[in-house]
Amino acid sequence: MSKGIEEKGIKEGVLSSIKNLMESMDWSSEQAMTALKIPESEQVQYVNGLKK
Fold first, then answer.
1. Predicted confidence band at 52 (pLDDT cuts at 50, 70, 90)?
2. Is residue 13 within 8 Å of 20, Cβ to Cβ?
3. In degrees to the nearest 10, what's the CA dihedral of 17, 23, 28, 33?
4. Total-model pTM
5. What's the pLDDT band for 19 if we cut at 50, 70, 90?
6. Under 8 Å CB-to-CB from 30, ≥6 apart: which residues?
7. Nearest-5° Cα angle at 22, 41 to 9
8. Alpha-carbon span 9 to 13, nearest angstrom
């Protein structure tokens, strides 16, 4: 499997997890990413992904 495809799948899975926590727990994206222990240095890419 291509590394790019694998990374895209992981990113989509993390985005899905963030969205699920935001919906089910009524959390902000920051709270969801903190709960998932996503490093602050990576959070910007996920915030941008949530806006799409």
1. confident
2. no
3. -10
4. 0.88
5. very high
6. 43
7. 60
8. 6
